[in-house]
Design brief:
This protein is an alpha+beta fold and 303 residues long. The protein is 19% helix and 28% strand. The protein has 4 helices and 15 strands.
């Protein structure tokens, strides 16, 4: 922060001691201010940290959600750990993860790794809400999460319309101060999610809320958005808000006008996304062999 040397008021002759003391006090005060300001700045990024790899992966870890036959718990944990150790991801956005499996991976990666987890909930016709549990003992709740090698702050969910009756997914955001970055993992509600109103569309409200919750540039957000990219062959194109593909570019977006991208689901659809306002370096689609979704990895320049 630039600053100018203060102009000291002239002192009367005959009182040199007071003049010296006053000047020293002013300089000491300025030094204190500068120390506080400098301490509040994030540490300068090393050359190795000026690019950051962020991944998103729907683990299909909730066995009762058509995930039988997509790999054992041990295989899924190994693939999640591999996104870090083999692919270099320092932030992983997760959906359909089990709390117990996520904690096992975090512990294996080391004490510097952190997680933020939010459970899926089920709201019944009477209005009662309960957490969704994973099938096997020790897996705990099913949910969406952030796995990070950096300290996370300002963590919170984003309010968006959810089913009146049925499965409630969600959006979870946090700030990575080390990179001055806002990140969000999202799992949106496909059409028919509201058991009380099967014809209701929720993704338009959810996408709008997601895009509105992040800054114009220093962000990476996405996840399993449960919708194909906008285009003439997608009748649900209207659900997309102006932020994604507009002020933010998608990992696999070839040009400003492009809305295409490689499939991220075994069905041949692109359902998983990573958007950013930062310069993109590389986009990778990885079939882990342990989910019906492929992992998507985006490398961005942050420094």
């Amino acid at each position: 922060m630039p600053w100018t040397r203060p102009r000291l008021a002239p002192c009367r002759r005959g009182r040199p001691g007071r003049r010296v003391i006053a000047a020293a006090a002013v300089l000491l005060g300025l030094a204190t201010v500068l120390t506080v300001v400098r301490a509040s700045w994030p540490a300068r990024l090393s050359s190795a940290e000026r690019t950051l790899t962020v991944a998103t992966w729907n683990m299909c870890g909730v066995e009762q959600w058509n995930c039988r036959g997509t790999g054992s718990r041990a295989v899924k944990r190994a693939e999640l750990e591999g996104l870090v150790t083999r692919s270099g991801a320092r932030l992983v956005l997760l959906q359909e993860a089990c709390a117990g499996d996520l904690e096992t991976v975090r512990a294996a990666l080391g004490r510097s790794w952190r997680t933020e987890f939010r459970p899926y909930t089920w709201r019944d016709a009477s209005g009662r809400t309960s957490d969704v549990r994973c099938a096997e003992p020790g897996q705990g709740a099913a949910g969406f999460a952030l796995l990070s090698s950096y300290r996370l702050s300002a963590v919170g969910t984003v309010a968006a319309q959810q089913p009146t009756v049925g499965l409630r997914r969600g959006i979870l955001c946090a700030t990575v101060a080390r990179h001055d970055l806002r990140v969000c993992t999202a799992h949106l509600s496909p059409r028919g999610s509201d058991r009380a109103h099967p014809g209701w569309e929720l993704r338009d409200d959810q996408l709008k809320a997601l895009a509105a919750s992040v800054p114009a540039r220093r962000t990476v957000y996405g996840g399993d958005l449960n919708v194909d990219p906008p285009g003439p062959r997608n009748p649900s194109s209207w659900v997309w808000s102006s932020g994604p593909y507009g002020r933010h570019r998608e990992c696999d977006q070839a040009s400003a006008s492009s809305r295409s991208g490689r499939a991220t689901h075994v069905s041949g659809h692109k359902l998983d996304y990573l958007f950013t306002g930062l310069p993109r370096v590389r986009c990778t689609v990885r079939d882990t062999g342990a989910s019906d979704h492929f992992a998507l990895l985006l490398q961005v320049r942050t420094g």
